[in-house]
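Archive transcription. Copying these from loose printouts into the bound notebook so they stop getting lost. Printout 1 of 2:
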Amino acid sequence: MIVSQGVKVIPAGYVGVVFSSFSGVKSRPLQEGIHLLVPFVDRVNLYDARLQEVTLAHTTQDGDEGAIRARSKEGLDITADVTVQFRVDRSKAATLHKELGRDYLRTVIRPQVRSKVRDAIGQFGAADIISSKRQEVEASITTELRKIFERNNLILDSVLLRELRIPDSIAKAIEQKQAAEQQVAVERNRLQQSTISAQRAVVEAEGSAKASVARARGEAEALSLRGRALRENPQLIQLTVAEKLSPGIQTVMLPSTGNFLLDVGTLTQPAKAAAKP
């Protein structure tokens, strides 16, 4: 009996808090393994240090409580199913035993979860909660609960919003509103596309007009340069005329200062006529 009272085995996943009949709760908790105690003086209280969870949902099973009823920012009724996962802080198990004891689920966790979920839901509109703001609601609940858990020697692991329910009439009105907003967004997108297309057409027209002006300016400058070249070099006029004459006409340019052209075919016509019998 003395040996059995003097030896204690702490199972895996648990932590032991020693209560001495002489000095009360010892500040150093016992971790997993075999420990020696003072027989008939020390008594060990085991606490589960593994991951635990508490669920508050509309279907009560395995000791779960009912769902949380809250009101949105505009006063609409919202029902939330929530699961909270947590652990006992091993290093502070002795303090937890002194201040809360084994009934910390009833005295701290469940009432605080209900309170913080109601507070977080009351900061948002119903439409935002069931659509785009769900993660923000979870984050707000997690932040506030983590503070409460730390003050009570518990470690919050996660908060899960399993389901959020609102009245059917309100849900239908929200869906209609969202559908109208999506239609407005579609029409706005079409308007933007039409505006972009019109701007593109204007830019293309301006570019074409500028190209035509530049082309006309280039042609005018080319003609101006050609006229200047002809004025400065009169021989170019005769060369140009010769190039434009029909290839069937035989012409010769006399090397004189007169600057004129003779049609060789005209000069040879009388000779050809005289040769005929």
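Printout 2 of 2:
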Amino acid sequence: MFLFEHIPWYSVVMWFVVLGALILVNEMARRNKWFSLFLFLLVPIVLTIGVWPHTADKDSGVGTWFHWVKVYSALAGCLGFMALRFIKGLNTNKYMLMFPAFILSLNILEAVIRDFQVSGLHGMIDGVMMVGGPWNIMNGIAGILNIVTISGWMGIIISKDKYRDMVWPDQLWFWIIAYDLWNFTYVYNCVSDHSYYAGAALLISCTIPAFFMKKGAWLQHRAQTLAIWMMFTMSFPAFVGDSMFAVQSSHSEVALWFMSSVSLASNIAVFVYHIYKIIKHKRNPLKEEVYTDLKQSKELVESNGYTPKIAS
């Protein structure tokens, strides 16, 4: 196959099991703040003390600095978003409203640094096969563009229903798709033998809820599914690496070139559109929403109990 080696039927079934489990646990956490606190605060403390020092060592494939930083930054996002959702007054605090954009940018930047680092690596390193090359640099640039096109955090709202979801009206489908392409490519570039699950299934598990379940809450879905997956894979690293369900990358340079090209092209397109919108509507992307004139943005605001801003 192009991206991966042969995928047996039971690995296809397991892919859907992983996808369904991530969506289900994310939805449980979204609907119950006490379950969220248990899952994203108590469980990580227990795992940090009693499990990960033994399972996530340097030879496990999940023992690199990136995996440790990623799990804690994802958990920080989950807890920070919960604070924004449930602590009275924080959803109107301009500094707290910067937190989602900050933690998102930090997560992307972590991956960009790792992509640049891997560009010069070859062979089995830290339990993972590395095939570094120019494609890593291309995707790192795509990640930087993805950060630059984050906007509208001052327009984040908390839904006026019992679940109090964090809705970001300026974070629309085209940015999400560009992010997904960039992030899948990052995983394929840097942890290629994990990308069948950690790339495809994980990304789709937050994109489906954002498009079809609780619209506009993509970053909330992303943080929670990422934290759930990272806790699982650091506790059971053999699942993606050595189990019967593991699917290996093809390690094809053609595939690496292709994915990085698609990632870079999509993020350039979003960047060009972003600049066009800023110039056309004279927006300050550091202080204002960029896409208030778009129908989808207005619908997200209205459906969560707020009055849309009038685009100038």
